[in-house]
Write a structure and sequence with these properties.
The chain has 183 residues and is of the alpha+beta class. It has a domain of 116 residues: Ribonuclease H-like superfamily/Ribonuclease H (Nucleotidyltransferase, domain 5). It is built from five helices and eleven strands; from the N terminus they run ααββαββββββαβαββ. The strands form three sheets. Strands 3, 6, 7, 8, 9, 10 and 11 form a seven-stranded mixed β-sheet that branches. It has a two-stranded antiparallel ribbon with strand order 1-4. β6 and β7 form a beta hairpin. It is elongated, with a radius of gyration of 23 Å. The termini are far apart.
Length: 183
């Protein structure tokens, strides 16, 4: 970064002098915040979801998803920015995907706690059905013995497969792009 600034400003002085001057101007070296890019369609779905769920009983909603834990060597980007400007797009780094070496895990979370992180190999509808009934249901029954919950998940083809749908009683929530299932 300093080399770029020196080149840009045609600065011939020492690196430390440059850093002092940048600091005097109120800029400090910080790691750029990373933000995934949202399309206008994503933003509209999120707004519609918020509008239609203002009065929902969120203490009975369970969210689940898969996560990729990556060992890629993507290092944070160093930027010089003023205090309080972390999320100013000028000082942010964007990402569109994770690294190439990864571990896929599945879990759920609710108002009252989280399930046990479950490592997944290759996820297909048969394995997902296994996860729901062998991993998720026992832990949900401990937190919610009456069994009255709403299960939220995305519209992955695995989640929406006939095999999984036969085991769950779905009610569509088309505004959210997510599937809600009472268990």
């Amino acid at each position: 970064m300093q080399g770029f600034v020196k080149l840009l400003l045609a600065f011939l002085g020492k690196k430390t002098t440059l850093i002092w001057r940048v600091n005097e101007a109120g800029l400090r070296a910080r790691h750029a915040a990373v933000k995934e890019l949202l399309t206008d369609e994503h933003k509209l779905y999120r707004l519609a979801f918020a509008d239609s769920n203002v009065d929902r009983k969120w203490d009975r909603v369970i969210f689940s998803d898969e996560s990729i834990f990556s060992s890629a060597n993507d290092r944070p980007v160093l930027v010089y920015r003023p205090w309080g400007e972390r999320y100013n797009s000028q000082y942010m780094s964007t990402c569109t995907r994770s690294g190439h070496v990864f571990i896929l895990c599945w879990d759920w979370i609710s108002h009252d706690g989280a399930g046990m992180l479950h490592r997944v190999g290759h996820l297909d509808s048969l394995q997902y059905q296994h996860i729901l009934h062998i991993v998720m249901l026992p832990s949900i029954r401990m937190l919610y013995p009456d069994g009255i919950i709403h299960f939220q998940q995305d519209h992955s083809s695995i989640h929406d497969s006939l095999l999984v749908q036969d085991r769950c009683r779905p009610t569509s929530n088309s505004l959210t792009g997510r599937r809600e299932r009472p268990i």
